[in-house]
Write a structure and sequence with these properties.
Layout (H helix, E strand, L loop, with lengths): L1 E6 L6 E4 L4 H14 L3 E5 L5 E5 L3 E7 L11
Antiparallel strand pairs: 1-2, 1-5, 3-4
Pfam family, one: DUF3107
Organism: Protaetiibacter intestinalis
InterPro entries: DUF3107 (IPR021456)
């Protein structure tokens, strides 16, 4: 599943693929924001951990992983 995170005052977004379900990501974000946690932690498919300050979150886009096509599509 693809995750995109927009961070305030940053020109680029953080984008990575995760094995977490959309419900797990939503639950983690909701928990961090309601509890007033200073950071949110998410992991990708390769085991990297992304720690993002909750105060700087602009948006989080969670989408289904779509297989990428190779070559020309007719």
């Amino acid at each position: 599943m693809d995750i995109r995170i927009g961070i305030a005052n940053t020109a680029r977004e953080l984008s990575f693929e995760s094995s977490q379900t959309p419900a797990e990501v939503e639950k983690a974000v909701e928990k961090a924001l309601t509890a007033g946690d200073p950071f949110i932690s998410l992991s990708d498919d390769k085991g990297k951990i992304y720690i993002v300050p909750t105060a700087g979150l602009s948006y989080i886009e969670v989408g289904g992983g779509e297989s990428r096509r190779v070559g020309f599509v007719a």
